[in-house]
Design the sequence.
């Protein structure tokens, strides 16, 4: 993607004022039970949170918008962080580069992202760093991409984490090559099953990636599962699924419709019972792969599944990948991938925003606005 950036500059713009404190939405320090996550009203908003200090390889980003996730307060990384300190939430964001990494001053051409560039990104690990529900956030080069100009800051913030999760599920854990799929002349059409695609934004992003002609010019047969006949029709008519299953017995649905088993299963649900339903040969072919990104996958479940289903079951934890984020940004620019905004709420009303996420009212993601664009 052609950089939409300003001319190179020093590590910090001398005219940019960086305050010592900022507004932030955080989970206060405490001991939390992962089996019974804290409710939204445990979150605290304050205006005197210390502005983070970037390390040698980190950018300081002034946050415009940050997107909240349904599992925000149940992620092990969030609760582990809150056990040690007040932990700012939200991993996806859109904002403006304020300072660049000190170590990049010695690089030929300087940092990839320049001061003043608009970027979207994801904090891949919140155990050691804070999230983006604040005025400022830290990120590395591999966690950023240029914000496409054809989307708003709110929509841009909804994309990075779910799209990167779906991307890595397909191209890292699913064994596909993004360059190979775009050039493939094979007559064998790839077949993919996505569980709970309507209820999980990751599933919706995965469906869009699979429908991208840039990535899959030969097309992909996609089946998605959901909870109702109404959602099944929406998956087919609105999101382009070839087939949809709204019954719990997935194998029986495949057999009764005469569908051939799939090559890859992207599992948004997780848990032993769900994974058990995905492994019959009627659902996934021999040597096919089941990739689960349900968070968190209990250790006992992982051991049981791996013991009974073998190495074709993989559990995904998102890793920094700047090249993938750049490709995702390009797909957004081509309008082959879209985000989805449920509602934009100001950061100071963050509890209300998180409560709306918990209600699961409507499609799209709830976004908090930290600074005006």
Sequence:
């Amino acid at each position: 993607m052609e950089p939409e950036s300003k001319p190179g500059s020093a590590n910090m713009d001398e005219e940019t004022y960086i305050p010592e404190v900022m507004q932030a939405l955080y989970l206060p320090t405490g001991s939390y039970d992962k089996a019974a996550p804290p409710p939204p009203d445990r979150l605290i908003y304050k205006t005197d949170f210390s502005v983070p200090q970037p390390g040698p390889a980190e950018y300081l980003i002034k946050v415009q918008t940050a997107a909240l996730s349904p599992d925000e307060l149940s992620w092990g990384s969030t609760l582990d962080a809150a056990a040690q300190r007040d932990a700012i939430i939200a991993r996806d964001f859109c904002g403006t580069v304020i300072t660049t990494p000190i170590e990049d001053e010695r690089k030929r051409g300087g940092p990839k992202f320049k001061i003043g560039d608009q970027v979207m990104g994801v904090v891949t690990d919140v155990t050691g760093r804070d999230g983006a529900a604040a005025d400022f956030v830290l990120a590395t080069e591999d966690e950023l991409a240029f914000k496409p100009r054809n989307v708003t800051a709110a929509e841009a913030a909804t994309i990075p984490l779910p799209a990167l999760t779906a991307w890595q599920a397909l191209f890292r854990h699913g064994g596909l090559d993004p360059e190979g799929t775009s050039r493939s002349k094979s007559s064998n059409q790839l077949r993919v099953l996505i569980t709970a695609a309507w209820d999980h934004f990751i599933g919706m992003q995965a469906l869009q990636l699979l429908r991208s002609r840039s990535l899959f010019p030969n097309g992909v047969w996609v089946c998605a599962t959901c909870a109702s006949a109404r959602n099944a029709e929406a998956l087919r008519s609105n999101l382009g699924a070839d087939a949809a299953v709204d019954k719990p017995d997935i194998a029986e649905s495949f057999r009764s419709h005469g569908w051939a088993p799939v090559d890859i299963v992207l599992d948004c649900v997780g848990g032993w019972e769900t994974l058990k339903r995905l492994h019959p040969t009627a659902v996934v072919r021999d040597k096919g792969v089941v990739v689960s990104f349900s968070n968190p996958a209990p250790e006992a479940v992982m051991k049981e599944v791996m013991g009974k289903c073998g190495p074709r079951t993989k559990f995904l934890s998102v890793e920094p990948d700047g090249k993938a984020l750049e490709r995702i940004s390009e797909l957004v620019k081509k309008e082959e991938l879209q985000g989805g905004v449920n509602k934009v709420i100001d950061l100071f009303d963050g509890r209300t925003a998180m409560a709306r996420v918990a209600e699961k009212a409507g499609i799209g993601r709830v976004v908090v606005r930290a600074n005006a664009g």
In short: Residues 160-173 form the longest helix (14 residues).
